[in-house]
Design brief:
With about 525 residues, the protein is mostly helical. About 70% of the residues lie in helices and about 5% in strands. Helix 4 links the parallel strand 3 and strand 4. The termini are far apart.
């Protein structure tokens, strides 16, 4: 059995694969190489617990991990959340070899990519090369992980002199460190030096990144277009170019470049989401629907799986006349995000919109009332899109008082959570009005009474309460002691109304009617 150096034998390795037999086989190979510090796990959830509580020198991860996150999604999360120390070796392993899978797997640039089945000699060779490089660059990684960028750059300069064979690799790393340190001119000069040697794709993309950070967008675009012309599969270039078009307000070109990118590499959730949002801005609802569906599919089990993608898809189905699909999408989202209050709130917003469109007014109002009870924060703290949707839905339901309250509160940073209770009573007042119009005076009076008790300074609600009682008296619905009690209540509401707005025309008419009934 081929063996490796003593330093390499001390490395700590994590192997992730959902097949127990394969885990046992690979552990046997690694043990035979002299490596004894090996951890195994069968899924991404277990692996995440391990990498957040321990440090590993090497991670061998299979692409397919059964139910839950796949290897690509696991690596995406590690990279986006900066969980791994820089210099940790990540090797993606898979038995699949379709183009879209390969593009997705390599997009985040793992250190190596191995196709199953592979001979153990290949694994040993790959590990040896990667680990030797890691050991050489270790001082840079330590300083970088400690965010001591000045020290990391000094180590780069020193190692470039003593290890000329790795000079290009170290220069590439130094440029990345310079970007993180916001030393953009240094980074740009390093990429330019590499490009004098050869037009490396990574150097062209690095140059474009720096120009973008310096807000030199026209130059960024030129570099990216040249890079794509030379290598149409350098997928990150498409994403950055789309951002340039977005900044310039050219969403049509942004959509075109994203469509091309998703054709080359369709399995990346964030790119599909960007395409969906851009297509929607452009009014291309068919493409937006397709892209949101793909976004949800790509992000299933991933940390990127967000309720906003599900509600956006449901909204699209509503707007394009597919209520059944919208309902199914919402039902799935409610089930999937059942333990997340914020997600449930967003789902109810779209559900209310759907029921309103279907003409189910009572159901829509029931949901809307629930929305008001479960608002996660005061209105001014909610995202502008949610504020606008609440205002629109209150208008669609004919809730004029709540619409006005929303409009007043949208920019009211001083409103406290307790102040949001008024929405509930404004809704009760509106419900009372509908009952009153159907001549259900007792039920209407009960709602007006509750609303007036909790919103005593609202002239309209006080007058509604007074009017419902006056009409009960006029129609002979209360007699004897009950009539006397209702007269007292009506007088109380009229007195409050007089204090609030003595010149109110409606108050004066009701007061005259009341005096004529009880004289």
């Amino acid at each position: 059995m081929q063996t490796i150096s003593e330093d390499i034998q001390k490395l700590k390795i994590l192997h992730i694969d959902d097949f127990g037999n394969y885990r046992s086989m690979l552990k046997s190979i690694l043990t035979g190489m002299g490596i004894k510090n090996i951890d195994n796990c069968s899924n991404a959830e277990e692996a995440m617990l391990k990498v957040t509580s321990d440090k590993y020198d090497v991670i061998l991860c299979d692409y397919n991990l059964g139910d839950g996150q796949n290897g690509q999604q696991f690596y995406e999360e590690l990279m986006h959340k900066n969980i791994l120390d820089y210099g940790t070796i990540f090797i993606m392993v898979t038995a699949e070899n379709t183009m879209d899978m390969v593009m997705a797997a390599v997009e985040y640039r793992p250190d190596a990519y191995l196709n199953k089945p592979f001979p153990k000699e290949m694994l040993i060779t790959r590990l040896e090369k990667l680990i030797v490089k890691k050991q050489t660059l270790k001082p840079i990684y330590i300083a970088y992980n400690n965010q001591d960028y000045t020290k990391a750059i000094k180590h780069c300069d020193k190692l470039m002199k003593v290890t000329p064979k790795l000079a290009m690799e170290i220069g590439k790393l130094k440029a990345k460190i310079a970007i993180d340190a916001k030393q953009y001119q240094l980074a740009l000069s390093l990429y330019e030096q590499a490009l004098h040697v050869r037009p490396f794709d990574w150097a062209l993309y690095g140059k474009a990144q720096v120009l973008f950070l310096q807000e030199r967008y026209k130059e960024t675009q030129e570099v990216l277009e040249g890079l794509i012309e030379n290598n149409r599969n350098y997928i990150e270039a498409y994403d950055l170019l789309a951002k340039i078009y977005d900044i310039n307000g050219d969403f049509i070109e942004s959509q075109k470049i994203l469509e091309t990118a998703t054709t080359i590499s369709p399995r990346t959730a964030l790119r599909q989401q960007h395409l969906a949002q851009t297509a929607y801005k452009n009014g291309d609802k068919e493409l937006a629907t397709k892209a949101f569906k793909q976004t949800i599919s790509n992000s299933q089990h991933s940390y990127l799986d967000a309720i906003d993608n599900h509600t956006a898809l449901a909204n699209l189905y509503i707007e394009t006349g597919h209520p059944n699909k919208a309902g199914k999408t919402l039902a799935n989202a409610k089930k999937q995000f059942k333990n997340n209050k914020d997600s449930q709130f967003k789902t109810k917003l779209v559900e209310c919109k759907l029921e309103t469109q279907l003409g189910h007014e009572d159901r829509a109002r029931e949901i809307f009332e629930n929305i008001l009870h479960t608002m996660p924060d005061k209105l001014s703290n909610l995202p502008k899109g949610i504020q606008d949707e609440l205002i629109k839905q209150s208008r669609d339901l004919g809730e004029e008082d709540i619409t006005n309250a929303f409009l007043n509160d949208a920019d009211n940073a001083e409103q406290d959570i307790e102040g949001m209770r008024k929405y509930t009573y404004l809704l009760k007042n509106a419900k009372g009005m509908r009952l009153y119009q159907r001549n259900k005076l007792r039920e209407a009076m009960a709602l007006f009474d509750e609303a007036a008790t909790n919103l005593p300074d609202n002239i309209s609600i006080n007058l509604n309460a007074a009017q419902s009682i006056i009409m009960m008296i006029k129609n002979g619905l209360v007699k004897g002691v009950a009539r006397d009690t209702h007269i007292e209540k009506a007088q109380a509401y009229l007195d409050i109304s007089n204090q609030l707005e003595p010149d109110n025309e409606r108050y004066q008419k009701l007061d005259n009617l009341f005096r004529g009934l009880v004289k």
